[in-house]
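Reopening this one. Same input as before:
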Amino acid sequence: MFNEILKKYSRAGVVVKFIYVNVAVYIFAVLIGVFSVLFNAGGVADGVAGFFELPSSLHALLRQLWSLLTYMFLHKDFMHILWNMLALFFFGRIFLNFYSVRHFVGMYLLGGIFGGLAFVSAYNLFPYFAPFVASSHLVGASAAVLAITVASAVRSPGYRVNLLLVGSVKLSTFAIITVAISVFMLSGSNAGGNFAHLGGAFSGWLMAYMLGKGVDLTVIVNRPLDWLSTLFGKPRQAKKKKPKFTYSAGGRRADYEYNANKKRAEADIDRILEKIKSGGYASLSEDEKKRLFDASSK
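Same output, byte for byte:
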C-alpha cells in the first residue's frame, strides 16, 4: 500500500502533491497523539506539535526559524485540514491556468511565509495580544491558499467560479469578500489567524502585480529550493552547448515559417486568455481548453 501511495504521489500534479504532504503530516501528528495518550506521554505530542507550530513570540521564533515553513503543513483537526485541502485543490488548479508549476510552489511557500510574518508582527505590535504572546501558535495552510486565490484573481479578475449555494461569481469578487471577512474578524477569537490570512492575500497580490512588471518574486523561495535539490536531489544535467548551423536559402525559409507559426500560436493563446477574462474559463470550447492546456504544459 505504501508503494502504491508513492507511485500515485510521483505521478500526481503539483497541487495534489502538496495535498499529499499536508495529509501525511496530519496523519503523523494524529498517530503521535494517539500513542502519547496510550502511553501517558502527553508531553511527546506537545513537543512534536511545538516543533512544527509557528510561535507568536518573537524570541521563540528566533530559536526555531524553520517553523515559518513547517507551520503551513500542520493542521489542528480534521475539519481544518479538510477545508484547507479542498480550497487548495480548487483554487490551485485555477492558479495553474495562468501560472507555472514553479510559480505555484513559490506562491504557496511565499504566501505562508508572509502570513506567518503578519501573525507574529500582529502579536508583537498590538497591545490586545500582549497577554497571549507566550502561549499562542499558528498552524494551517490558509494563508498559502489565500495567496494562491488572490494571485489568480489579480491575473484574471473576470474568471468565474461556481460556489455551492451561491452559484457563479467572479473570482475577483470572491477574493475581495474573503479578504473583507478576514478584516472584519481581526478582533475575533481567531484574530491572529485572520492577520495571517491578510498577509497571505497581500503576498498573492504583490506577486501577481510584480510579475506583470517583469519581476518574479517567487524566485525568493525557488532559488534556495533549486540549490537544495542540487545537494540532496538528482544533479541537474549540464546545459548542452548549442550547435552551430550553416543556413542555406531553404534553411532560412524554414526558420521564417517556424517563427510565423510560433507567433500565430502565441496570438491564439493571447486570444484565449482574453476570452477567459471576459467570460471565464467555462466560456472556452473544448478545443480552446486543449490548446491552452498544451501551451501551459510546454
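So the earlier flakiness isn't reproducible anymore. For the record, The beta strands are 54-55, 137-138, 160-163, 167-170.
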